[in-house]
Design goal:
- The protein contains six helices and nine strands.
- It is globular.
- It starts with 6 loop residues before the first strand and ends in an 18-residue tail after the last strand.
C-alpha cells in the first residue's frame, strides 16, 4: 500500500472517519531558509533552454554554449552558435578553444542523458565557470527553437506539452 492509499483517524474528524495520509507531506517541506539556499544553488548550476535561447537571441555576452555529443549527433542538429566539444575531448581541446572568462553552458541529448553533466564536471575541473542546460537538445527542439544541421537550419513546431503554442515564453 502506498502512502497516498494509507489512512488514519483524524482528531478533528468524526470518530471512525478515515483521513488520507499525504504522500507529499509524509516528509515535511524544508524550512524556508533551507529551501531558498537549495533552489539558489540549483540555479547556480543549471539553466533551462528558454533562458539560454533568450540570451543567445539577445546577444548577451559572457556565455559560450558547448555541445558535448558526437560528430554524428552534432551533424544531426545543434544549437546555433554552439561550439562542438565531445565530452571525452574537453580536457584536451577546451584550453585552446574556450575562453576561461566565459561561463560555459553544456548540453547533450536530453534529460535521459548525463553527458552534459559529465561535460560540466570536466569544465569545472579545468577551472571554468559552468552551467548545465536542462532538457538538452531534445527540449531545445521541442520548444520550437531553430537549430542547425549539416544540411542547414531547421525548426519544428512547438510541442505544446513543453511550451506555449504561441512560441512566446511561458514567463515562469
Amino acid at each position: 500500500m502506498s502512502v497516498a492509499e494509507s489512512t488514519r483517524e483524524s482528531s478533528s474528524a468524526v470518530p471512525g472517519d478515515a483521513v488520507p495520509i499525504s504522500a507529499v507531506l509524509s516528509v515535511p517541506a524544508a524550512a524556508p531558509a533551507e529551501a531558498a539556499a537549495h533552489y539558489a544553488a540549483r540555479l547556480a548550476f543549471e539553466a533551462d533552454v528558454s533562458d539560454v535561447h533568450a540570451d543567445l537571441a539577445a546577444g548577451v555576452p559572457g556565455i559560450v554554449v558547448v555541445d558535448t555529443r558526437s560528430r554524428a549527433a552534432w551533424d544531426q542538429g545543434h544549437l546555433p552558435g554552439a561550439v562542438h566539444l565531445p565530452t571525452a575531448r574537453i580536457a584536451d581541446l577546451a584550453p585552446g578553444t574556450i575562453d576561461p572568462a566565459l561561463t560555459v553552458v553544456t548540453y547533450c541529448w536530453g534529460p535521459g542523458c548525463n553527458g552534459a553533466t559529465r561535460a560540466a564536471l570536466a569544465f569545472a575541473r579545468l577551472g571554468h565557470p559552468v552551467k548545465e542546460m536542462l532538457g538538452g537538445f531534445e527540449y531545445w527542439v521541442r520548444e520550437g527553437f531553430a537549430y542547425d544541421t549539416a544540411a542547414g537550419t531547421e525548426q519544428r513546431p512547438v510541442d505544446d506539452l513543453t511550451a506555449p503554442r504561441s512560441g512566446l515564453s511561458c514567463a515562469c
